[in-house]
Amino acid sequence: MVDSIRVALLGAGTVGSQTARLIVEQADELERRVGARVELAGVAVLDPSQVSDPWIDRALLTDNALELTERDDVDIVVELIGGTTVARTFVLSALNHGASVVTANKALLAKHGPELYEAARKNGVDIYFEAAVGGAIPIVRPLRESMTGDRITRIMGIVNGTTNYILDEMTTKGLDFATVLKDAQAKGFAEADPTADIGGFDAAAKAAIMATLAFHRDVRMDDVHVEGIEHVTDSDIAAARAMNRVIKLLAVVEQDSENGAISAGVYPVMLPADHQLAKVSGSFNAVFVEGEASDDLMFYGRGAGGAPTASAVAGDIVTVARHRVAGTTGPDIPLYSQAPMADAADGESSYMLRLSVADNVGVLAKVSEIFANHGVSIRALQQLPDEDEQGNHELWITTHSVTDRVIRETAEDVAQAKDTSSVLSIMRVFEDAQ
Q1: Binding of L-homoserine: at which residues (predicted)?
Q2: d(CA 206, CA 149)
């Protein structure tokens, strides 16, 4: 009979600290849920002298993470240090030494996931990672277990709280990107180097994980088409508002029902203002999952933060601990699909283009002709009455569905045309059915 489950914690930052607190302060409740005592076996950090959390026993601190992963008395290794190099080494070491792993490391899974899943399978242990995608939102477990009897066709969601906060502040307060970013950094919603968030790379890693689970194919971060929000302006926000729309950064993964090709992308999208995702405010996240049998499911909640993320980590610890007590493991992650990855340039959507054009006779006709020459059907066209400092007017064009490749080629020709000053922005426009 198993009397205790010993947990080694790698990292005691924001999430690691809160995870340790839950293990220590909820020890009696966790024991009732698991059937054995869950206790910390060690906490690895770069500098033990810097850890001041009262719930972490000083005697458990070490700067030797690898040694913790190799200990025979450790049942579960919780990796919360981030990155894809030493984290990979530590996780593989833990799995190969017979410990199960819980991690919140999206970048690691998006780059080395299949290797780690196979190592867990080969060694007869678990690897769980609920916190890697949606923080406190339970999205991994449904994709990995609950929906395995259904065919998932599409996942679309807001999976980065920083970018959602920035876009929401720009929308509701009329502020420009730079101002909101600075405010987000001051409040701790954005990192000092916000590239991973605003560039869409954080969301891309999560998209890769969701696509891998949903479509049973090895999808890496490099397979995900990425566009961030760094070029979204207050003028784009105003244009969306005038069209009764809201701009959100979405992660979208889907599988073509005819050829089976898988597409994965992260990009800003103009959504109808009454769309459920358009109403997700602040740093909250939300994910839509579409299944053939289940139809539409929505998961909503806090996608980041120490306590919410630690909640998901602790949930995985309980699940894995139960498996250890019972002498079992959870389901493997089968990656049997050979479906091709679709070319992002072939993806179709409606688009909205903002152009700067001269106030000359024939300009609209010329622009329309260029669109027609590329086979792009215009749904709506509007020229704004106000002039800029150069005497140009903004022209808004919304198209019917067209491939990304064609709309980019069209925009290039428009930009080179006489009387067209520049293409100010190009953005996808989603309808309710998309």
Answers
A1: 191
A2: 22
Cα distance between residue 137 and residue 398, in whole Å:
34
Q: What is the mean pLDDT of residues 373-399?
A: 89
Domain of residue 394 covers 344-429
144 and 271 assigned to the same domain: yes
Q: The pTM is what?
A: 0.94
| Tens-digit pLDDT profile for residues 242-260 | 999 999 999 999 999 889 9
Residues 6+ apart with CB under 8 A from 3: 36, 37
Same domain, 95 and 66: yes
**Same domain (yes/no): 65, 11:** yes
Q: Which of 173, 206, 248, 366 is catalytic?
A: 206
Per-residue pLDDT tens over the stretch 157-185 = 999 999 999 999 999 999 999 999 999 88
3-state percent breakdown (helix, strand, coil) of the chain, nearest 5: 40, 25, 30
Q: What pLDDT shows up at residue 318?
A: 98
Does 35 share its domain with 109?
yes
Catalytic status, residue 173:
no
Q: CA-CA distance, 132 to 82, in Å (whole number)?
A: 10
Supply the CATH number for residue 288's domain: 3.30.360.10
432 pLDDT band, cuts 50/70/90, is: low
Residues annotated within a binding site for L-homoserine:
191
Is the Cβ–Cβ distance between 48 and 63 less than 8 Å? yes
204 and 237 co-located in one domain: yes
Q: Which residues participate in the annotated binding site for NADPH?
A: 106
Please give the pLDDT value at position 429: 97
pLDDT at 434 over 70: no
Interior angle at CA 152, CA 430 and CA 160, nearest 5: 55
Binding residues: 10-17, 106, 191
Structure tokens at 29: 């409740």
